[in-house]
Amino acid sequence: MQTLFISDIHGIIDHLDKIDVYLKSSDLIVILGDIFYAGANRNSNHNYDPKHLKRVLNVYKNKIIAVEGNMDGYEEGVEFELSLLESRMIDGHKMYFTHGHYYHSSDLNIKPGDIFITGHSHVPQIKKEAGIYYLNPGSLSLPRNEIASFMVYQNNQFTIYDINHQIIDFLNL
What we know:
This protein has 173 residues and is mostly beta strands. It contains two helices and twelve strands.
């Protein structure tokens, strides 16, 4: 099962076309919050177009799991639900999805071997502590490390890519 993880888009569509192949080919798309609202960044040099972003994402509504970020709220015209926390078993791995501003791993009954995936920091990350995997795809639009990124899970491997499809980091389970 191929799963695409994206986060912290903030209504900016500058790099949306660069992940089009993954939007189309993924069995599941997990959006880790801060989807539409860009705050002060909507007046920046970025292509802020939440209406276009809604149209694109609504095409894939049947395969989207989306969690709410600290900048998200009700957004008219969105055809998928937002929650604060989701979890799924994928390929026998328990995965938790949240933005990272409300729930933290210490709030949940996470066990060694589980995978806790967040957004919020705008920085890609793969690390393991006390047997728990902590992953973050980074930001597709407003990276804090200047590298726009996303993450793909397939065949028991997580891979974080920059928008030019160069590997930043990976984890084999």
